[in-house]
């Protein structure tokens, strides 16, 4: 009897612990982390790996619209957009991502607003009931993307309303095993509009590290390395070329670190390419040193010289292409992508002109006088 009593008490304690720990999980981002998303997975859904899911989106009314989507990119993402309807409530628009174009409304019968959705205390709140979204790991982590636009209210109930391009975005993962609740009804009915307790916060938003990363890497590969290589045919001083390129090299690693701090860096192909390019770039200063030493000794280019030249050119091209890919995956505007392409084209033309000028000048000197090393015959190369 005593053992049965002990077992009953232990079971009751375990049940109580499970009930008390079961609660929705939240994530906040945007300016000052004021945009918050909350997920609740009914225990029946978690056990069967399919079923209903509850989502809550809340944000200050200073935002024109807020969007939350499944997956790690816009393409084929199931999206939930909310904005003010002009009557003191919110409009929920379900949309399907189509790459980097404005997502258009896609009807989802199993998705609807539920009790508690409102605009209160200058905060938009959307409590959402969703049927099975497919490809959800209810016992593990799932990738999500979010975006937002500040500005005046849309004041519309039109679920297919046109929206302006976002001015902030983020991607992150959510562990659904920590969001299981022991009921299948609205779990948000008594939640306040304050930042949810225990909410984790992430990157994205105005001034985020992904923006810093993009700016630094664009300057490095569009201007830094190419201009550094042009210093040789223009100035003809190897130590100026080497100093410039080493400064750019260090700046590149600062941009790499900023990218690593961005929430979604390791989830995209551009990050893999960027990591490879930065890693391979470590070899380039070594090749540059060997090239300079051999040129001083032999007074002509050797195999190391050509390796230094073409290895650097290949990495520079990869870096520029990867930057354009990064802009597309980050959802940059067409104007920004076109601007990046124009600068890249101009830089390429300048680089080519400098290389041709160097070759012609070198050939002319070679015809009229013996070659004497003065530190100015280093190849058009990249560190």
CATH superfamily label of the largest domain = Cellobiose dehydrogenase, cytochrome domain
Q: What is the domain total for the residues?
A: 2
CATH class bucket of the largest domain:
Mainly Beta
Approximately how much beta-strand content do the residues carry?
15-25%
Give the overall silhouette. elongated
Helical proportion, percent range: 40-55%
Mean pLDDT: 80
The total beta strand count reads 14
Q: Note the gap between the termini.
A: 80 Å
Radius of gyration: 28 Å
Largest sheet: 8 strands, mixed
- Low-pLDDT stretches are 1-21, 263-267, 370-383
Instruction: Give me the CATH architecture of the largest domain, please.
Output: Sandwich
Briefly characterize the structure:
The protein has helices at residues 2-21, 43-48, 209-235, 238-261, 269-281, 283-298, 303-329, 334-368, and strands at residues 25-29, 35-42, 53-60, 63-70, 78-84, 90-96, 104-105, 112-113, 118-120, 123-130, 141-150, 168-175, 180-181, 200-201. By secondary structure, it is an alpha+beta fold.
Describe this structure in words.
The chain has 383 residues and is α+β, with helices and mostly antiparallel strands. The protein has two domains: 25-201, Cellobiose dehydrogenase, cytochrome domain (Immunoglobulin-like); 208-367, Up-down Bundle (Four Helix Bundle (Hemerythrin (Met), subunit A)), CATH 1.20.120.1770. It has eight helices and 14 strands. Strands 1, 2, 3, 8, 9, 10, 13 and 14 form an eight-stranded mixed sheet that branches. It is elongated.
Give the topology.
Blueprint lengths: L1 H20 L3 E5 L5 E8 H6 L4 E8 L2 E8 L7 E7 L5 E7 L7 E2 L6 E2 L4 E3 L2 E8 L10 E10 L17 E8 L4 E2 L18 E2 L7 H27 L2 H24 L7 H13 L1 H16 L4 H27 L4 H35 L15
Parallel strand pairs: 1-14, 2-13
Antiparallel strand pairs: 1-2, 2-3, 3-10, 4-5, 4-11, 5-6, 6-7, 8-10, 9-10, 11-12
């Amino acid at each position: 009897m005593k053992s049965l009593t002990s077992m009953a008490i232990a079971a009751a304690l375990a049940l109580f612990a499970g009930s008390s720990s079961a609660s929705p999980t939240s994530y906040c981002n945007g300016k000052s982390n004021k945009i918050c998303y909350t997920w609740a997975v009914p225990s029946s859904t978690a056990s069967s790996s399919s079923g209903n899911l509850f989502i809550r989106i809340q944000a200050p009314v200073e935002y024109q619209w807020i969007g939350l989507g499944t997956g790690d990119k816009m393409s084929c993402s199931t999206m939930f957009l909310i904005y003010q309807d002009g009557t003191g409530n919110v409009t929920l628009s379900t949309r399907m991502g189509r790459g980097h174009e404005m997502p258009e409304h896609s009807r989802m019968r199993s998705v609807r607003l539920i009790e508690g959705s409102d605009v209160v205390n200058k905060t938009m709140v959307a409590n959402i009931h969703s049927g099975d979204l497919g490809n959800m790991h209810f016992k593990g982590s799932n990738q999500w993307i979010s975006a937002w636009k500040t500005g005046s209210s849309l004041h519309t109930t039109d679920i297919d309303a046109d929206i302006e391009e976002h001015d902030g975005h983020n991607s992150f993962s959510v562990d659904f095993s920590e969001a299981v609740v022991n009921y299948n009804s609205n779990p948000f009915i008594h939640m306040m509009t304050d930042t949810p307790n225990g909410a984790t916060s992430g990157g994205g938003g105005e001034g985020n590290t992904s923006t810093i990363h993009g700016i630094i890497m664009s300057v490095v590969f569009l201007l830094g390395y190419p201009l550094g290589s042009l210093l040789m045919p223009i100035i003809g001083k190897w130590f100026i070329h080497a100093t410039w390129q080493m400064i750019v090299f260090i700046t590149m690693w600062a941009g790499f670190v900023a990218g690593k701090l961005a929430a979604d860096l390791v989830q995209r192909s551009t990050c893999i390419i960027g990591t490879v390019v930065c890693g391979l770039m470590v070899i380039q200063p070594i090749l540059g040193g060997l090239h300079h030493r051999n040129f001083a000794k032999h007074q002509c280019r050797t195999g190391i010289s050509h390796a230094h030249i073409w290895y650097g050119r290949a990495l520079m091209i990869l870096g520029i292409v990867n930057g354009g890919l990064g802009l597309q995956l980050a959802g940059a505007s067409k104007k920004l992508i076109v601007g990046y392409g124009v600068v890249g084209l101009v830089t390429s033309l300048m680089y080519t002109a400098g290389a041709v000028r160097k070759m012609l000048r070198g050939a002319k000197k070679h015809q009229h006088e013996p070659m004497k090393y003065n530190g100015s015959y280093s190849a058009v190369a990249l560190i």
